[in-house]
Amino acid sequence: MRRYYFRVAAAALAGLAMSAAARADFPDKPLRIVVPFAAGGGVDALTRPFAQELGKVLGQTVVVENKPSATGQTGAAEVARAAPDGYTLLLSSAAFGTTPAFYPQAPYDPIKDFTPITIVAAAPQVVVTNKNFKARNIDELVRMVKAGEQVNVALSGITGMQALATEMIAAQAGITFTKVPYKGAGAAFKDLISGEVDVMIDNPASSLPHVRAGNLNLIATTGPRRMSTAPDTPTVAETLPGVQARNWFILAAPAGTPAPVIDALSRAAIQVANGPVMQRFFERDGTEVVANSPQQAGQYLSEEIARWGKIVKERNLQP
Fold first, then answer.
1. Model pTM score
2. In whole angstroms, what is the distance from residue 274 CA to residue 290 CA?
3. Element containing residue 180 per DSSP (H, E)
4. How far does the chain reach from its first CA to its final CA, in angstroms?
5. Which InterPro entries does the annotation name (predicted)?
6. pLDDT tens, position by position, 276-315
């Protein structure tokens, strides 16, 4: 029995020593943040300044690598397989959590294969229309559809937050849109501006420049409150209570990453998200800083997976 307790105590002391070493030494080499989408997109645009500022706080270079695929599966799977040492991280959008609802055989599990570090920020979506579209608010839009008029809604993707927000609005209003899928926002904007399609739900970062240029109308936003950059624009929830959709951005590490490393990364990420560089970036597009703890990020992730998974199932959505 004495030998057994000695082994247990030795193992516990070894674990404490390893944890202390992780706290003291991490990081001692460059880090890599994988973005599972193409360069130039919304997630990539956020990650570039974030990585640069994170490197300053940690005292190491932080390299951004794009591993694009249609729904972010390729990059997420690569990080899930990486060594759980804190040197390979993932920065992704809400698609990280919602994609497995569409693809049950997705090559990663957002809960089992990852340890959340923080939800960096969250952005309400915007509802934009072409300049000649008759509806100037959500109430008029709903009335048009219920009166039998066809409303064409552009979808820049099939499994992302934009498509899910479109479905949530339709479900809450009891209407059906004519959905027109595109391979990306660029082609969708071309047809939306020309009037080939009527409406699109999109990220503010890519839509608001067209609104400011006078090419599109902004009729609503999908956050819990009005956007600071568009205070005169009502939320969808003001007409359809309960409709909220935000595209959030998560920083995560492979499952099994030591707790002291996660804590160090969390502290640094929260400092960066609340710093002046990222604050200016977020304020420009009406994005809100979240910067929560790993535990809070995990709870948020679970809640979002359940909420949107229910929409996918109830609406029988297919990729």
1. 0.82
2. 9
3. strand 178-181
4. 59
5. BUG, Bug_dom1
6. 999 999 988 788 999 999 999 999 999 999 999 999 998 8
